[in-house]
């Protein structure tokens, strides 16, 4: 085992959450409601993401929004009328739940304007982030709080500097849905050096079955790279292409490492995955799980008997 160089990389406290997408896969539900506000059990998906960020010590959150995203701001703001009504009723439990979202972090907002891709959305954060390293969390991936991915990624960045991405081993037939990373092993289990990245390659062209999922810790050098990155796949500015540049030349902004995630992840990216995420999370809840699991078993068994 080779010893890893120690880095003086400072801790990160700023998180960027891109939330400007149109949510077309969930129409008509998202015609007037942002996809990020669709409930996952009894909280909007975006709240899980903010909670994950704050649990990892990221207390400054910037959301990259677009048109019709005002409900995001309302959700993380105080609602004095509702709070007063709950207080008059003596409903302390629901009052605490309502107040929780507005006390999570210092949350800021900037509009992306033109939908030019994830790389462009991240670039919109440059004036707020400045010269600091920062995290990017995508809302389609919900990470179980029992598996603190961001904390592990932060440790790797403190040791090595540069940028860190989250990776997931997927079936090779599914790699075309993700960015794919070329990697080299390190002396640490589930930590790799990323040497290249390709956005949504055909399975035959993929450098590996390590897929990039929606968690990044980025060196601020990525902003200059993004400014010079031409539109790529889909005519959009791809964050993957900028990370490829950083990985190919560590002199620009340090190396790129990957943390291979083997914990619990809930994908809310399409309707089927969204429904499965709700079922999984509901089954895990101590207040809902026992009754819900009993009902689910009976329901599935009843459906199987009907089909048979």
UniProtKB/TrEMBL annotation:
<dbReference type="InterPro" id="IPR029044">
    <property type="entry name" value="Nucleotide-diphossugar_trans"/>
</dbReference>
<keyword id="KW-0808">Transferase</keyword>
<feature type="domain" description="Nucleotidyl transferase">
    <location>
        <begin position="14"/>
        <end position="281"/>
    </location>
</feature>
<dbReference type="GO" id="GO:0003983">
    <property type="term" value="F:UTP:glucose-1-phosphate uridylyltransferase activity"/>
</dbReference>
<dbReference type="InterPro" id="IPR005835">
    <property type="entry name" value="NTP_transferase_dom"/>
</dbReference>
<dbReference type="Pfam" id="PF00483">
    <property type="entry name" value="NTP_transferase"/>
</dbReference>
<protein>
    <recommendedName>
        <fullName>UTP--glucose-1-phosphate uridylyltransferase</fullName>
        <ecNumber>2.7.7.9</ecNumber>
    </recommendedName>
</protein>
<keyword id="KW-0548">Nucleotidyltransferase</keyword>
<comment type="similarity">
    <text>Belongs to the UDPGP type 2 family.</text>
</comment>
<dbReference type="InterPro" id="IPR005771">
    <property type="entry name" value="GalU_uridylyltTrfase_bac/arc"/>
</dbReference>
<dbReference type="GO" id="GO:0006011">
    <property type="term" value="P:UDP-alpha-D-glucose metabolic process"/>
</dbReference>
């Amino acid at each position: 085992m080779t010893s890893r160089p120690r880095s003086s990389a400072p801790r990160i406290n700023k998180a960027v959450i891109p939330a400007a997408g149109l949510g077309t896969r969930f129409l008509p539900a998202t015609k007037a409601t942002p996809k990020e506000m669709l409930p996952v059990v009894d909280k909007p998906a975006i709240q899980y993401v903010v909670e994950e960020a704050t649990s990892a010590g990221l207390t400054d959150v910037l959301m990259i929004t677009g048109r019709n995203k005002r409900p995001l701001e309302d959700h993380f703001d105080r609602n004095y009328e509702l709070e007063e009504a709950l207080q008059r009723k003596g409903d302390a439990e629901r009052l605490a739940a309502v107040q929780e979202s507005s006390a999570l972090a210092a949350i800021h907002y900037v509009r992306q304007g033109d939908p030019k891709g994830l790389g462009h959305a991240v670039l919109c954060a440059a004036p707020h982030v400045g010269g600091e390293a920062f995290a990017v969390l995508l809302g389609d991936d919900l990470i179980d709080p029992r598996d603190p991915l961001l904390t592990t990624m932060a440790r790797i960045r403190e040791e090595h500097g540069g940028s860190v991405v989250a990776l997931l081993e997927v079936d090779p037939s599914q790699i075309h849905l993700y960015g794919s990373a070329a990697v080299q092993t390190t002396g640490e289990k589930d930590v790799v050096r990323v040497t290249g990245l390709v956005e949504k390659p055909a399975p035959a062209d993929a450098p590996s079955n390590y897929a990039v999922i929606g968690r990044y810790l980025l060196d601020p050098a990525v902003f200059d790279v993004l400014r010079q990155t031409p539109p790529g796949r889909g005519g959009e500015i791809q964050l993957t292409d900028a990370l490829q540049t950083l990985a190919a030349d560590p002199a620009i902004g340090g190396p790129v490492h990957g943390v291979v995630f083997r914990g619990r992840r809930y994908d809310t990216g399409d309707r089927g995955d969204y429904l499965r995420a709700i079922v999984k999370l509901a089954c895990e809840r101590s207040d809902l799980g026992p009754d819900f699991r009993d009902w689910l078993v009976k329901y599935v068994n009843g459906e199987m008997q009907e089909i048979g």
